[in-house]
Design brief:
It is globular and about 40 Å long. Helices cover 35% and strands 32% of the residues. The longest helix has 18 residues. It has 5 helices and 8 strands, in the order ββαααβββαβαββ. It has a single domain, classed as Aminopeptidase, CATH 3.40.630. It is α+β, with helices and mostly antiparallel strands. Strand 4 and strand 5 form a beta hairpin. The mean pLDDT is 91. Keywords: Transferase.
Amino acid sequence: MIETERLVLRPLTVGDLDAFVELHADERVNRFVGSYSAGRARERLLAVERQWAERGHGLCAVELRSSGEFIGRCGLHYWESFDEVELGWTLKAGSWGRGYATEAARACAAWGFATLDVDRVTAMIRHGNVASVRVAERLGFSPSREDLLQGCPVTVYALDRPADEPSSGAEA
């Protein structure tokens, strides 16, 4: 579990199914990340649980410390096809504009660099997702390349390991 001043981040599980489906049902949210039926969400959450078990990292539920309310997801996902660890974030529209995405992503990046043997993390951002670009830039990410993620064009942003953060030696 990762805690920040305002947030608690914990591994996503199948127990988060309803909240996960609800998050992705909002058209303002899913226009960049897609929607999920209950069946597809269950498959995705089982894959998240496997990644946590096999790799020691994955996506987290983002909850408000003050109330425990689920407001989204954030975390580190390993893409075998790219051999990269991506930092991603998706929050409920009602939580936008409060700095939660930046706070959660900053905490995940710091945790990842402290825990994993990676020299950089990426953020794959679909074209037109200006809010996510702003979050990435606030965190120090810079554009690295153009690519396709699951058939969609993305700009891949990269954040290098801070010079003062030694590698843990743990596999990414």
